[in-house]
Specification:
CATH architecture: 6 Propeller
Distance between the termini: 40 Å
CATH topology: Neuraminidase
Helix content: under 10%
Radius of gyration: 19 Å
CATH superfamily: Kelch-type beta propeller
Amino acid sequence: MTILANINRKSTPIGIGAFFLLTVVTASCSADGQTPTDSETYPDARGYAQLISHPPSGTVILFGGESNRRFSFEAIWSYDPAEDTWKRFDTPVHPVAVGGTAAAYDAESDRIVFVFSTRLDSSAPRGYVRLSETWAFDVSSGQWTKMNPDPAPFGLMGARMSYDSESDRIILFGGADFTSDPAEWFNTTWSYDFNSNSWTEMPNGGNPPGRSYFGMAYDENADRVLAFGGSPDGVAASMWSYDYNENNWESIEYSGDAQPDHHPFMMYSPDMDRMLYVVGESFSAFDYNTRSWTSLPWSPDLGTRYFTALAPAPGTGNVVLFGGGPRGMQYNNDTWVYNAESGWERRGSGDR
């Protein structure tokens, strides 16, 4: 494990279902000085960020992403849709200069689990190096914990994660190694148990083709994880469902056109019982029961949105969108809320 300068570490054995090792970081710094200054009152423009619904607090949580200068963010934020306010957490302990992020909320443990697959490194040929870090964020206390599971998924840039609430497992799939030439895409499936702090690879003979930066979410009514879109070319139009209990992936034949592409975002709306999918200027809903896509209204003021993030607004039936933009690092820092009856509404005080 690489340790950055000016980081002090102490290791403490803590039992959660089983004994394992947690690392508490007592100070932090940025790698190569490549950390932009986030506003104290509103998140800066970014793409590739993670936006996670946290029902107990009635908020959505924003972390990470890259700036328009390709620097990584280290501040973590909460957005209250009812009050239309952003709050920045004060977290002296946090992940440092990491990227390639995947995240999911573990409802049973009330933790948001993050997996980071890269770290910025200006001396590396492509500006970053591969790694594996698993962190958990406790919204109620505002504290990060580095989990240090072993083994763990390594360097899977653009992998996606979803929480299977029926099985109390986080499912991770896909990712790529963009440090190799040519790039290599992976089709491995992993499950994570927070209580035992353990990752388990889930081998089977029917995994989907490898992909990265795709849409993936858990349909709680169907008890299936669905994956759609992403790269490389040739895999985006295929849709797959995963059943953890049977450790089985199944290809889905569907009707309708969601305009599958690279760098989408997909989330499950429990109120609508639909997958919602945003890519470019396309906004669509998928009904697992009928295996069909339906186009939804898109506001022209939103423009083009790749690299964006969506999350359910807890207790409202609405959806929150933040950031993203056209290709070429032209990210925004605006907040939008979608309501099935009234459509899109601009919120907050971003610069767009």
